[in-house]
């Protein structure tokens, strides 16, 4: 395996007839049949860290779920990406559940469950999830999510709600969790193993009857402390000013970030604020504690990606010097495009912005598109469409990205023509997908032009073609030569396999020279020894040099194939439904045929 084997799983994929082994490597996925023959290979965005095979769509055909080091979870069906999402850290584990559900774990201690592409719940711990799997621990016929943690805790949660229904504590961290009939009773048991070698087994329906030593005492002490705290608060004199107190909350986009502002009522000050927001802060939590209590407090929010984010805020309010504070709890949602602010028409817009963008036809009133804009942006006042005058039933909105200061323009004409002028194809794709989701569009085609992306794709294709020539130089003294009419990836991998075979034959020659050198040493033939040593040095140098060149070429080839793959995904996100599928198919055909003109046409017209 040229790209290494970092994760391996075995199962039945819906589009293949037999069981296969799926191998995740350094930015690639390889599928092998029972004889070890490669039947499928594709490039991923980063190192593959986890793989699961399960029925995502509920059509009784298994799809391939892949987690990568760049925080992404992708679903593959044949060679198409059906669904993808991005988490807050490297995806460390995936496990298929029932009813189109799957569980995931990421490196920052978060676990959760998705159903049909929608997340049902998530929880975060200060410890790392080592292993996840499904098992009916309470014997009710419904699978639970079993998680083993680095702290030694093993818990079972409801797949639908995330509620803990069972937990145990091992003496050391969990090494792994397996399901096995280790008692030979004809039914599997849950087996948890710790890093120190401790092994515990639980049969379905029996684990609930075995509470951990001291668990009941810990629960009672926790309840006692909570009740004592409540009694102290009730006994304290609560100032009248606390009653009917309200907190003013605002969300705006300004000065390079989305900003959460809170203001206390008359006579009260904000002492502390705790903000929970997924993926916004390191550790997902921010504590804002001013040196002196203030009447107003502003918190800067910088989401790294475009997407709606729920933020949970706890704010402690009270007069100066108070020991007892009132805590307000509230939940707000950051809109998908909160990191973009509305600006006036720039005097001189960049020529790149004017010449780049995406255009589509949507049979929808401008008023409804305005509703989508109000929902997707942080606006001081709602955007309204003019009903009279020269700009009636049309929209023109200029935006500036707060992350990179890039300028974008969104326009909609009365005829339904929508144009997004931007040099950022990722932003344009997010706009297309968000608008299509809001309007309930299942099919949407578009025409796009992004010169920077197009040049990168064409350059990557040329570099890949250059590697073919390099491989042919390696083989110019043999009968193996890659021909351009073959499929691109298959041809490259075939040539690489033949290069490996030649390296193996050279290694055999190297061994024979070593044997002859040893014979000369035993016979004390100095001249023969000198001759064999020089021969050995030359063969070894050639072997090392060829290996380094081949490995460097493979690495560069993988980088360029990744660039092509990412470009194809961007092209797909500019369209919806069959138009996206057709665009991907045309791009891949052009890449396989090494046809830059066809690739450019597919990128622009789908």
TrEMBL record:
GO CC annotations on file: cilium; cytoskeleton
Annotated BBS2 hairpin domain residues: 489-573
BBS2 GAE domain: residues covered: 257-337
Keyword Cell inner membrane attributed: no
Locations listed in the record: Cell projection, Cilium; Cytoplasm, Cytoskeleton
Highest taxon, organism lineage: Eukaryota
Residue stretches making up the BBS2 platform domain: 355-439
Keywords: Cell projection, Cilium, Cytoplasm, Cytoskeleton
InterPro entries: Bardet-Biedl_syndrome_2_prot, BBS2_GAE_dom, BBS2_hp_dom, BBS2_Mid, BBS2_pf_dom, Quinoprotein_ADH-like_sf
Span of domain Ciliary BBSome complex subunit 2 middle region: 50-157
Protein name from the UniProt record: Bardet-Biedl syndrome 2 protein isoform X1
Taxonomic path: Eukaryota, Metazoa, Ecdysozoa, Arthropoda, Hexapoda
């Amino acid at each position: 395996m040229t790209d290494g084997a970092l994760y391996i799983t075995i199962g039945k994929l819906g589009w293949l007839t037999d069981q296969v082994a799926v191998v995740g490597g350094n930015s690639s996925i390889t599928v092998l049949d029972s004889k070890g023959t490669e039947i499928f290979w594709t490039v991923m965005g980063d190192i593959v860290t986890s793989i699961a095979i399960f029925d995502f769509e509920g059509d009784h055909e298994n799809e391939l779920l892949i987690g990568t080091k760049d925080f992404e979870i992708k679903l593959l069906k044949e060679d198409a990406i059906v669904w993808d999402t991005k988490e807050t850290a490297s995806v460390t584990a995936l496990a298929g559940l029932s009813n189109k559900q799957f569980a995931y774990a990421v490196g920052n201690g978060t676990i959760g469950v998705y159903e049909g592409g929608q997340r049902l719940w998530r929880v975060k711990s200060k410890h790392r999830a080592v292993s996840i799997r499904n098992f009916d621990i309470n014997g009710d016929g419904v699978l639970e999510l079993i998680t083993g943690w680095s702290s030694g805790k093993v818990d079972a949660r409801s797949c639908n709600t995330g509620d803990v229904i069972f937990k145990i504590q091992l003496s050391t961290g969990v090494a792994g969790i397996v399901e096995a009939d280790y008692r030979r009773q004809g039914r599997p048991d849950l087996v948890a193993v710790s890093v120190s070698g401790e092994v515990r087994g639980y049969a379905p329906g029996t684990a609930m009857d075995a509470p951990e030593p001291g668990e009941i005492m810990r629960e009672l002490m926790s309840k006692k402390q909570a009740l004592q705290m409540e009694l102290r608060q009730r006994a304290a004199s609560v100032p009248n000013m606390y009653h009917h107190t309200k907190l003013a909350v605002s969300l705006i986009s300004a000065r390079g970030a989305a900003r959460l502002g809170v203001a206390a009522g008359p006579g009260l000050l904000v002492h502390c604020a705790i903000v929970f927001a997924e993926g916004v802060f390191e550790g997902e939590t921010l504590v804002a504690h001013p040196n002196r209590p203030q009447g107003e407090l502003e918190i800067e929010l910088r989401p790294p990606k475009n997407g709606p984010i729920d933020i949970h805020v706890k704010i402690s309010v009270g007069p100066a010097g108070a020991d007892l504070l009132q805590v307000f709890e509230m939940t707000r949602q950051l809109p998908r495009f909160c990191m973009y602010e509305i600006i006036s028409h720039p005097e001189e817009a960049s020529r790149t912005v004017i010449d780049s963008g995406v255009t589509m036809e949507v049979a929808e009133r401008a008023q409804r598109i305005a509703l989508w804009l109000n929902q997707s942006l942080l606006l001081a006042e709602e955007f309204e469409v003019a009903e009279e005058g020269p700009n009636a039933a049309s929209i023109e909105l200029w935006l500036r990205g707060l992350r990179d200061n890039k300028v974008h323009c969104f326009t909609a004409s009365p005829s339904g023509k929508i144009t997004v002028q931007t040099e950022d194809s990722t932003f344009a794709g997010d706009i297309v997908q968000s608008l299509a989701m809001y309007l309930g569009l299942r099919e949407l085609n578009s025409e796009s032009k992004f010169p920077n992306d197009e040049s990168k794709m064409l350059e990557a294709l040329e570099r890949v073609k250059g590697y073919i020539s390099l491989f042919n130089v390696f083989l110019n003294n043999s009968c193996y030569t890659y021909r351009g009419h073959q499929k691109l990836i298959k041809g490259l991998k075939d040539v690489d396999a033949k290069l490996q075979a030649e390296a193996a034959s050279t290694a055999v020659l190297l061994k024979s020279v070593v044997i002859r050198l040893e014979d000369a040493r035993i016979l004390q033939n100095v001249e023969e020894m000198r001759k064999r040593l020089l021969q050995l040095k030359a063969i070894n140098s050639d072997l090392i040099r060829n290996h380094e060149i081949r490995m460097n070429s493979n690495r560069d080839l993988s980088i360029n194939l990744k660039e092509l793959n990412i470009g194809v995904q961007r092209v797909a996100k500019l369209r919806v439904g069959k138009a996206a599928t057709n665009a991907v198919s045309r791009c891949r055909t052009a890449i396989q045929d090494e046809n830059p003109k066809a690739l450019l046409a597919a990128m622009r017209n789908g």
